[in-house]
Amino acid sequence: MRAAFLPVILLFSLLVAGCLPKADIVKVSGHTMGTQYNISWVETESFKTSDSATIQADIEAVLERINQSMSTYRPESELSLLNRSASSDWQDISLDLYRVLIMSGQVYLRSDHAFDPTVGPLVNLWGFGPDKGVEEVPEKDKVREAMQQVGYGVANIRLRDEGYQVKLMEPRYIDLSAIAKGYAVDELARLFDKKKISHYLIEVGGELMAKGQKPDGNRWRVAIEAPPESGRRVQKIIALNDLGIATSGDYRNYFEKDGVRFSHTIDPRTGNPIEHKLASVSVLHESVALADGWATALMVLGTEKGLELAKKHDLKVYFLYRTEQGFAAQASPAFNALYK
Question: In the chain, where are the structural domains located?
Fold first, then answer.
């Protein structure tokens, strides 16, 4: 996946479990999508520690399938082929790509286009693309020119008797990095549910899904970390059950020019980096893919507009923003209903 949004993942899992029998929790980890995955689950009669290699092979197969569908680093991936296609006709796509394109469209429309998976040309122009350009502020004419290549509204997706299809009315470069990791977590959760493993914590690149409980009867607990500029510390610990969480932030990838700080988070509606005080946003959702997409959208919108949208769509959101005194937190009503 392209790294446009990968560096903003600031959520770290904490297994605050005390002293548990080692055999009770099985753990596997590995590399995928330019990052790492870490998965823990409670043993069952059918899936004990000795079965971890078999399950990890199934995990790797799911991740490989998603990578081959959505990676922009693989020239022959499904998405890369779509991006290179000059055709404006309907093209067949996989169920995975269909689902993620549909979810991307949902967040795109409901966020007033703050989330846009075609923002890549602007990210590249500002020097935050995979090739890391010169840290210079681009000319306004070049920004306007790049914006002509941005807009997810040209993508039409449909389900037909013959399968799943997409049609791009105009050429676009689609980058699903801001939602694909979340989708990978969802698919791994689907795998575990199919295997009837009922208690697990799945993390891919900082995006998480938790289900059930640890052997001691407590829920899985994860930590939302405070921005490192305030000193590395845990901002808030929450217990998850049948929920996923995704976090987006703006403080690990930026450059400064003439005393001005330029964030890597680009507002696709203006073509410029965000300028508000929001430092990070965490979204809880039953779908980690949607949490992933919404975290990016709300990071673009900022605390005030983001909170307004979170209320409108009943989203569980936790905001961390800068003040003159340091960092402050604000949460949506849906979040506070869970974690008062």
Answer: 6-69+178-338, 74-176
pLDDT at 133 over 80: no
Cα–Cα distance measured from residue 124 to residue 264, given in angstroms and rounded to the nearest whole number: 10
For the ranges 51-60, 111-120, 231-240, the lowest mean pLDDT is seen at: 231-240
**Domain 6-69+178-338, classified CATH 3.10.520.10, yes or no:** yes
CA 201, 316, 297, 280 torsion-angle sign: negative
Residue 126 dihedral angles phi and psi, to the nearest 5°: -85, 5
C-alpha dist (Å) from residue 335 to 176, 207, 248, 283, 340: 26, 17, 16, 9, 8
What's the confidence (pLDDT) of residue 263? 72
Q: Are 227 and 320 in contact (CB under 8 A)?
A: yes
Report residue 43's pLDDT band, with 50, 70 and 90 as the boundaries.
confident
More confident residue, 134 or 210: 210
* C-beta of residue 180 within 8 angstroms of C-beta of residue 3: no
Identity of the residue numbered 31: H
The CATH code belonging to domain 74-176 is: 1.10.3980.10
**Tally: H helices and E strands in the chain:** 9, 18
| Distance from C-alpha of 310 to C-alpha of 22, rounded to nearest angstrom | 40
Per-position DSSP letters for 243-307, written without gaps between them: EEEEEEESSSSEEEETTEEEES-EETTTTEE--SSEEEEEEEESSHHHHHHHHHHHHHH-HHHHH
User: What digits encode the pLDDT tens for the residues 230-245?
Assistant: 556 788 999 998 999 9
| Residue 153, SS3 per DSSP | helix
Element (H, E) at 237: strand 234-240
Tell me which residue has tokens 């470069």: 173
| pLDDT, tens digit, 9 for 90 and up, residues 257-292 | 555 665 778 999 999 888 888 999 999 999 999 999
